[in-house]
Specification:
Layout lengths: L1 H11 L9 H17 L29 E5 L5 E3 L11 H14 L5 E5 L5 H14 L4 E3 L5 H4 L1
Parallel strand pairs: 1-3, 3-4
Antiparallel strand pairs: 1-2
């Protein structure tokens, strides 16, 4: 009989090896909801009213690098979509230097200009000349598709 009590005593001393995952699941669901709400707010950019044109849509190929896009706002300020001063207003020489550095890393990177429909055409040409000085061989212009085609 003493033997039975010894076995029972050993069994009662065992630790439980179960993990309660319910709090972990609750935390993960809360984090998922927070990220779903904040992710759209993290998108940054410069608001530009692009002109509409019936042009062919560019083929979007999987590339290692995103294209270099110079944005010209309605006020005439130029900014770049990437680099250390992304979406910050830049002067011509700063823009040339930053684009030249980006093109030095990857010379095949596509370059585009997004010009607001209300900006003076001369400012769009200044952006194109800055890209050319930086070493871009081909510069494209970005537009919005017409309202009928967009739907």
């Amino acid at each position: 009989m003493a033997e039975m009590t010894g076995r029972n005593a050993r069994r009662s001393r065992r630790q439980m090896s179960q993990i309660n995952v319910v709090p972990f699941i609750d935390v993960m669901l809360v984090l998922l909801i927070i990220f779903m709400i904040t992710a759209p707010m993290l998108q940054q950019g410069v608001e530009v009213d692009l002109p509409e044109a019936e042009a062919e849509v560019l083929d979007v190929e999987q590339r290692d690098r995103e294209p270099i896009v110079v944005t010209v706002t309605a006020a005439g300020a130029m900014s770049l979509n990437q680099g250390p001063l992304a979406n910050e207003p830049l002067a011509g020489p700063e823009l040339v230097e930053l684009v030249a550095n980006l093109l030095a890393e990857s010379p095949e990177t596509q370059t585009y200009v997004r010009g607001d429909r209300n900006v003076d055409y001369g400012r769009v040409m200044d952006a194109m000349v800055a890209l050319q000085r930086a070493g871009a061989t081909k510069v494209g212009l970005l537009t919005e598709p017409p309202a009928e085609v967009a739907e």
